[in-house]
Amino acid sequence: MILVLCLVIFASPTGSAKATGFSDVSSFKKEIDYLTQLGVINGYNDGTFRPSVKLTRAQAVVMIMRAIGMPESNSFIKDPGFDDVGPSKFGYREIAVATSAMIISGKSSTQFDPNGNITRAEMAKVISKAFKLKGVYVSGFTDVSTGYWASSFISSLAANNITVGYSDGTFQPKQPIDRAQFSAFLARIMKPIFRPSTGSPAHTVLDIPVESSIIDLEKDPHKPVVYYLDSKSKSLVRLDLATRDKKVIGLRHPAEKLVEKNGKLFVTQLIQSRSPFNSMKTQKGIINVYDSDDLALIKEVDVNIDPYDIAVDDTETLLISSGSDQGYQAEIQTYNWRTSEKLSFVNVPTQQLIELSPAQNRLYSIETSHYTGRIVTFSLAGGKLESAPTDPRYFDTMKLRGYTQMTPGGKVMYNGDGTAYALSTVPSEDLAPLGKLATPFRTMTFNEAAKKFYLADRTESISVYDNDTLDPYATLNAYGRVDRLVYVKELGELYAFTKFKYEGAKEETLLLERFQLRK
């Protein structure tokens, strides 16, 4: 990692690295052990770490700038004009680049004070600007006024859980920062699991490895359990968020969708390449049925369709849309999974998203490829689909997004472009537009008891909406870009599966972040 080189100045002039267990370390032990095991920082030959040794301004800038990257050519480096930092001095290049980027400034126009101790306030500014931290720590610190020059930087540091300040509610901005404190800051930036819980709601990263390429996820309706599919490893995962127990099984074929119903998991299996030239006559696929507790395979159900999306009603009738074919020759088919009997079909365009009403009597088919977007309604009775009368609607978007979500009560359906539609068995009222949310979204989850819902759109921001007004009124900040949101009513907690890129890493890592909403 880049940081391995940038932190060698932490080493003792006579010291050698020690992996863990420094005799003089009590605070920030996990963070210091983590950086030591990486070879990022070293202890001394006498087995000490000397956590209280103060950091100089030059040392801090060198570490930060090498962490975020320096230009390879000196032609891009402008002399900062400090009399006490010449080209031959330690940290000259880094100080020059950091000053030019306005990450740090000198004590005056001609003095940088490279050997002076860097204060906690100065470090907050350097870290916030270098790593582009954003956010506001609403609680604040008693010794940091809103007019203080470093107030916004300290606030963003706390908002991202890099610091919690001191137990008396202060930040002590003028105090020099030491080796232990800086180790904590750095480790928390590198690995969010070290970030302590701060703010309201409390926000932490769980120490649970999560597969990197989740393509579908569903919460158990009665337990604090989530099930998800990972495309990279071709696996089905059961994760208990209360006990942290995790079970993983491999899949023979690629899978895209899963549904939980009556203690069973229904998982689509693709056994042929998806193609517009695969007519309904040549299509085939498999639906695997698993026990939701132990993931034991109950049955493989052969279906005459290339499964794209799936829904399951209370009688466990399978409703499957086709991922191949073109035009209106594709279908949505229904099956009795126990007998593999095909019960009915309706013609639709290919690759339809389908949403089944909680009353189990209406199915909505959402087309996202048409230039205006379309939603078509079907009735469902006895496992058979039929066209349902609905007043023609013009959907106010050039293209409906490939994500839809129905409210738990089945009264509203949201599309990922932000539009909301009323749902009703009365044709004149069904799919009536209710308005548009302030933001589009990629993932959504509901907190029925609090009459809230949460949504995100591949950024670090989670918008909190009011169920009745459809207005946003709060924002939660995740560490990584939000991929999936799940509200767990049994625990009163919101979970975010997020994509986070560690400093120096080539690929993103999936984090599991928790917001403890219950007071």
Automatic annotation (TrEMBL):
Alphabetical list of Gene3D superfamilies matching this protein: YVTN repeat-like/Quinoprotein amine dehydrogenase
Highest taxon of source: Bacteria
Pfam families linked: SLH (PF00395)
Residues in SLH domain copies: 15-78, 79-136, 137-200
Signal peptide per UniProt: 1-17
Keywords: Signal
SUPFAM superfamilies found in the cross-reference section: YVTN repeat-like/Quinoprotein amine dehydrogenase
PANTHER family associated with the record: OUTER MEMBRANE PROTEIN ALPHA-RELATED, S-LAYER PROTEIN _ PEPTIDOGLYCAN ENDO-BETA-N-ACETYLGLUCOSAMINIDASE
Name the record gives this protein: S-layer homology domain-containing protein
Source species: Sporosarcina gallistercoris
